[in-house]
TrEMBL record:
Residues 6-221 form the ABC transporter domain. Residues 244-263 are annotated as: Disordered. The lineage of its organism: Bacteria, Pseudomonadati, Pseudomonadota, Gammaproteobacteria, Pseudomonadales. The gene is znuC. Keywords: ATP-binding, Cell membrane, Ion transport, Membrane, Nucleotide-binding, Translocase, Transport, Zinc, Zinc transport. PANTHER family: METAL TRANSPORT SYSTEM ATP-BINDING PROTEIN TM_0124-RELATED, ZINC IMPORT ATP-BINDING PROTEIN ZNUC. It comes from the Bacteria. This is Zinc ABC transporter ATP-binding protein ZnuC. One of its GO terms (molecular function) is ATP binding. CDD domains: ABC_Metallic_Cations. The keyword Secreted does not apply. The keyword ATP-binding applies. It comes from Marinobacter albus.
Length: 263
């Protein structure tokens, strides 16, 4: 088992006695890609803020591996539009060397924009710049809050592919929030469906069959994902008749909570 990077132990965050993250238990290891999905207001951002140390738990514990370096990619790049700022300057604000900054930008496919103004970048280029800024710290853990927001559908697929490649290259763990269910399903190892508490979790191909998932996202979404991720779970004999295939793995690590009322 790879090194354990993050443990959430019974994490609860409440605002005015209203729990928005409720009794969440979670472990992230080096090499994991874990995606948090859930409806608006489900507590996704609050959960990652707790991991980043920006939100104090009301109850429970967030434990991080010793000397854990976290690279954070926010949803948007918000900058004062009147402030002239080049990509180079933006990257150098991290305090890293110019060659390191340039290498990180090349890794995320925007090395050619070193001298461009950040204000002139497209949505996809901005996201790649934010990713480069997170990478230059050589993180053990990448935390991304809807990294593909404002990026077109082709750009989204390549951004998720890039995140996978970076995970392989850096051997880091990845926690990300996403709303792009189809793309997430293709690019992640484990999905957590959060609606204050963890409704269900597991391999993306299996989650879409989960009653808790269907309850949260509706039958239409679940069916479209189930078709998209259909896995052949049986074999055929010489006559073409269907035979049970016991060698097909059952949903790996698939868990569903019980004892909670699903919203
Ligand atoms: N500092 C705060 N004080 C009070 N309420 C807060 C605070 N931060 C978040 N909330 C509330 O907590 C709930 C969860 O918010 P959060 O941003 O974590 O949801 P989310 O799942 O990320 O939503 P979205 O998908 O819409 O971004 C919301 O109802 C929000 O209004």
């Amino acid at each position: 088992m790879n090194e354990l990077l993050v443990t959430l132990d019974d994490l609860t965050v409440a605002f005015d006695d209203r729990p928005v993250v409720d009794h969440v238990n979670l472990k992230v290891h080096r090499g994991d890609i874990l995606t948090i999905i859930g409806p608006n207001g489900a507590g996704k951002t609050t959960l990652i803020k707790a991991v980043l140390g920006l939100q104090k738990p009301t109850r429970g514990v967030v434990s991080l591996a010793r000397k854990l370096v976290i690279g954070y990619v926010p949803q948007h790049l918000t900058l004062e539009s009147t402030l002239p700022l080049s990509v180079k300057r933006f990257m150098m604000l991290t305090g890293r060397s110019e060659p390191d900054c340039q290498a990180a930008l090349s890794k995320t496919g925007v090395g050619h924009l070193f001298n461009a103004s950040v204000h002139h970048l497209s949505g996809g280029e901005k996201q790649r710049l934010l990713l480069a800024r997170a990478l230059v710290r050589k993180p053990d853990l990448l935390v991304l809050d809807e990294p593909a927001q404002g990026v077109d559908i082709n750009g989204q697929a390549s951004l998720y592919e890039l995140i996978r490649q970076l995970r392989d290259e850096l051997n880091c763990g990845v926690i990300m929030i996403s709303h792009d269910l189809h793309l997430v399903m293709a690019a992640t190892d484990q999905v957590i469906c959060l609606n204050q508490h963890i409704c269900c979790s597991g391999h993306p191909a299996d989650i879409s069959h989960d009653p808790a998932f269907i309850e949260t996202f509706g039958t239409q979404v679940a069916e479209s994902l189930a078709v998209y991720h259909h896995r052949h779970n049986h074999s055929h004999d010489l006559h073409g008749d269907v035979v049970e295939d016991t060698s097909v793995a059952s949903p790996s690590g698939h868990q569903e909570c019980s004892g909670h009322a699903h919203h």
